[in-house]
């Protein structure tokens, strides 16, 4: 599980909680450290800066939570998301299995459950079938602030892959831009998975890194090892850092893998 977060400025201390990164509201950044990765590898990059003090700063423990999840399907899980994930402000999720009808049903379930979240925004819907075409697909972003898709000129095979998504949302007075990628799994059904995952990441990282500014992240389950694809060099040159690597470097938090 990869999670990457980047900004064009200087340094800010990130926070980690059960595989989730937490930072204070943009007007007053803070953090505490604890890292556990329950599913796969969680990675992020942080080059952050304090945006500025608010006129009336909030409490010191008021933190913004940005999380990444692989729910192995979100069908009929709106009540669970409402009750168990409400502590997060923005969630980037992959492997949702949501077609158009099921995405609408999920959002209706959120509203019925009284969730604090805005309607979920997804990438291209997965095929509405029970065949392999609808398996291991689907990327979404769920947030307490309205989320909008970013315009792009991706090739049609990427735009309609149900594996790539680029979005933005405004937090306080700062635009947070991010992307979600769900890499093809290691399976006989995906004989060209590394080439295809590289193309997905290249498209999303290019949109996030070079066509936007401010705090940014790239998240998802990429189904590759760190450094396995050329796109990792592209991320490094753009200033991205591996979140777990950063945690070990700055606070001595050792990497944990499930």
Can you offer a commentary on this structure?
- The chain is 22% helix and 22% strand.
- The protein is an alpha+beta fold and 258 residues long.
- It has one domain (2-52, 61-251): 4-Layer Sandwich (Deoxyribonuclease I, Chain A).
- A six-stranded mixed β-sheet has the order 2-3-4-5-7-6, with no helix packed on it. It has a five-stranded mixed β-sheet with strand order 1-11-10-9-8, with helices on one face.
- Helix 1 (78-84) crosses helix 2 (100-112).
- 45% of the residues are buried.
Number of domains: 1
Spell the H/E element sequence. EEEEHEHEEEHEEHEHH
Query: How would a textbook summarize the main sheet?
Result: 6 strands, mixed
**CATH architecture tag:** 4-Layer Sandwich
- Mean pLDDT value: 77
Low-confidence stretches: 5-60
Q: Say what the CATH topology is.
A: Deoxyribonuclease I, Chain A
């Amino acid at each position: 599980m990869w999670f990457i977060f980047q900004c064009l400025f200087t340094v800010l201390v990130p926070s980690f909680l059960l595989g989730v990164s937490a930072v204070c509201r943009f007007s007053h950044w803070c953090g505490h450290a604890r890292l556990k990765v329950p599913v796969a590898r969680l990675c992020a990059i942080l080059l952050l800066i304090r945006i500025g003090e608010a006129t009336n700063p909030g409490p010191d423990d008021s933190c913004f939570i940005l999380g990444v999840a692989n729910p192995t399907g979100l069908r009929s899980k709106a009540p669970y998301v409402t009750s168990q994930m409400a502590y997060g402000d923005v969630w980037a999720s992959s492997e949702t299995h949501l077609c158009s009808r099921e995405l609408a049903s999920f959002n209706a379930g959120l509203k019925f459950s009284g969730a604090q979240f805005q309607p979920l925004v997804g990438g291209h819907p997965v095929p509405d079938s029970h065949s392999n075409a609808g398996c291991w697909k689907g990327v979404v972003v769920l947030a307490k602030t309205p989320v909008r898709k970013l315009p792009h000129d991706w090739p049609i095979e990427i735009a309609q892959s149900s594996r790539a998504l680029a979005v933005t949302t405004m937090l306080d007075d700062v635009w947070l831009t991010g992307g979600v990628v769900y890499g093809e799994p290691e399976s006989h059904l995906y004989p060209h998975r590394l080439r295809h995952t590289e193309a997905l990441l290249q498209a999303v990282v290019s949109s996030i890194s070079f066509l936007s500014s401010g705090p940014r992240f790239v998240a998802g389950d990429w189904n590759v090892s760190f450094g396995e694809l050329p796109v990792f060099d592209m991320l490094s040159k753009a200033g991205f850092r591996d979140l777990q690597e950063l945690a070990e470097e700055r606070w001595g938090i050792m990497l944990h893998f499930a």
